[in-house]
Specification:
about 180 residues; alpha+beta; eight-stranded mixed β-sheet; 4 helices
Length: about 180
């Protein structure tokens, strides 16, 4: 991931742009980050994210919930207490010295994530988050009832997030020109 002057607050600039999320703590993993916390390098906004959709080309669609800024330091401190050292741009703390350490960290993480505001932002990124393909504001009432991808029982009942974001499922976006059509 490259450092970026793009900010999460400017959705138009997030279309096919280097990510502003240069620090990602992956708390869930499925061939890449599937959920966790991230921070915008430009404005320092902190979000909880969870995956709503994905395709085999490693395009992932996430719902983002804002968190109070102090949550970033709280979650990092909770993970570091257990002997974890952050590795950026994507940190996936996945080994614990004991079951008690894991349980304590999980409890503290849930307390921190409980501070999240309702989601109002959906982003699609490529791979491990190095490039944002699209971003869109969605009313919170429409996002809160959407299931996390791994909880979906019937795919025909899932919203078509790719179309909503102006993307094509299965398209290879790795070598796409720097500007996608709006």
């Amino acid at each position: 991931m490259k450092n970026s002057t793009v900010c999460c607050q400017n959705l138009e600039a997030l279309r096919n742009a280097d990510t502003p999320f240069t620090k990602i703590i992956a708390l869930d993993w499925y061939d890449g980050p599937a959920g966790g916390i991230l921070q915008c390098e430009s404005c320092q906004a902190v979000y909880q994210f969870d995956m709503l959709d994905w395709d085999y080309r490693q395009v992932r669609v996430f719902r983002l919930r804002t968190l109070p800024g102090e949550c970033w330091m709280q979650i990092t401190a909770a993970l570091e207490q257990e002997g974890k050292t952050p590795l950026w741009p994507v940190w996936f703390p996945n080994k614990w010295p004991s079951d008690d350490a894991l349980e304590n960290t999980n409890r503290r993480t849930k307390e921190i994530l409980a501070q999240a505001n309702p989601a109002e932002l959906v982003v699609a990124w490529l791979g491990y988050g190095e490039r944002i393909l699209a971003a869109q504001k969605i009313p919170a009432k429409d996002l809160e009832s959407e299931p996390v991808w791994f909880d979906v029982q019937n795919l025909s009942e899932v919203r078509d997030w790719f179309s909503l974001l102006g993307l094509t499922r299965g398209r290879d976006y790795r070598n796409t020109p720097s500007v996608l059509p709006a």
